[in-house]
Amino acid sequence: MLLPVGAIAQVVCALGPGAASYQPSADQRPSGDAMHVASRVNAAEKAICGVNCPVVALLRNSTAPNAALIVNGRDAKLVYAPQFFASVYGSYGDPGILAVIAHELGHALDDSMGAVWVKSSWTPELRADGWAGCTLAKSGLSQNDLHAALGALEKYPTPGHSGWNVRLPAIRAGYTHCGGALSFDSK
Predict the structure, then answer these.
(1) What angle, rounded to 10 degrees, do the helices at 124-137 and 82-112 form?
(2) Is the pTM of this model over 0.85?
(3) 93, exposed or middle or buried, with CB in 10 Å at 0-12, 13-18, 19+?
(4) Angle at which helices 32-49 and 82-112 pack, to 10 degrees?
(5) DSSP letters spanning 47-78
(6) Which of these, 47, 125, 137, 148, could form a disulfide with 180 (CB 3.0-4.6 Å)?
(7) Residue 100's CB: how many other CB atoms inside 10 A?
(8) Across-strand partners of 57?
(9) What SS3 class is residue 161?
């Protein structure tokens, strides 16, 4: 995920349209609620990568394309539109926000870590889904929370993402490889 020094900002993943309308000058500190959920993702990712976890700033920005991972040189940030997180929360609660953050950070994990269970034939989006599944496994979710998280991932794909029937096996691979034991059925 790290670009050479002097590189221009690059949107690695955007979960909605309008990435071109994103204005970095409108970045603000995240809400306390978003930070609370992000801390759960951080704890799960520490269980995955220990001290080698990528560092990604979390910021809110009403011009963001729902949620996006943006890198600029060695800096990375996950920006979210407050109205998007409010919508996700309204439908899926904290597990939905956790899943969205886990997918975006999955891009950073994929770029900084290798894993034998990640298939080389997977697209970057499927690899991020796999890492999101791994993060979900390490998050201590209940069965209902897991279903809510999966619902959010299904409802909010990137514009160029594969269909859910292609994404779900990648999420399941990461989830089971990282010790997840709950069922994906009955979603």
Answers:
(1) 100
(2) yes
(3) middle
(4) 20
(5) HHHGGGPPP-EEEE-TTSSSEEEEEETTEEEE
(6) 137
(7) 27
(8) 77
(9) coil
From residue 16, alpha-carbon distances to 44, 63, 69, 84, 169 in Å are 25, 11, 12, 9, 22
Tokens 């690695």 found at: 12
Dump pLDDT digits (tens) for 65-88: 899 999 887 788 999 999 999 999
Residue with token string 């979960």: 15
How far is 33 from 44, CA to CA, in rounded Å?
A: 17
Q: Which is nearest to 102 in space by CA: 163, 47, 52? A: 47
Which stretch, 71-80, 106-115, 168-177, has highest mean pLDDT? Answer: 168-177
Alpha-carbon gap, residue 124 to 128, rounded angstroms: 6
Provide the H-helix boundaries in the chain: 32-49, 82-112, 124-137, 143-155, 164-177
Q: Where do the domains of the chain lie?
A: 10-177
**Helices (runs of H) and strands (runs of E) counted in the chain:** 5, 4
Cα 18 to Cα 14, 81, 108, 173: the distances in Å are 9, 11, 22, 31
Residue indicated by tokens 């590189």 = 7
Q: Which residues pair with 97 in a beta bridge?
A: none
Q: How many CB atoms lie within 10 A of CB 9?
A: 15
CA 76/CA 58 separation, integer angstroms: 9
pLDDT tens for 112-144 read 787 888 998 999 999 999 999 999 999 999 999
d(CA 129, CA 175): 10
